[in-house]
Amino acid sequence: MIFAIIIGMSLATMIPRVIPAFIVDKLQFREWVNRWLNAIPYAALGALIFPGVTTVKPDEPHIGLIGGIVAIILAYIGLNVILVVIGAIAAVFLLSI
């Protein structure tokens, strides 16, 4: 019985995730829809990161914001992701001492 429940729940979770992967390849969207869909990962990433940036030091939120700005600048000039993260951490560390 437990095994049937596990199989049923795995199918219930897998089917809604797999079907769009097969359907999206067949659909042709307008250009503005493609631009909008391409922006979703960046918006989601920003929504996940921004609250953490503002709460690095809750009593001094500007420190986290400056660290985020440093990360944006380093990423914009094309540095490796590891260097962007290290640069942002270093900025926050230097502002915190």
From TrEMBL:
The chain crosses the membrane at residues 6-24, 36-53, 65-95. The keyword Transmembrane helix applies. The keyword Transmembrane applies. Keywords: Membrane, Transmembrane, Transmembrane helix. Pfam families: AzlD. This is Branched-chain amino acid transporter.
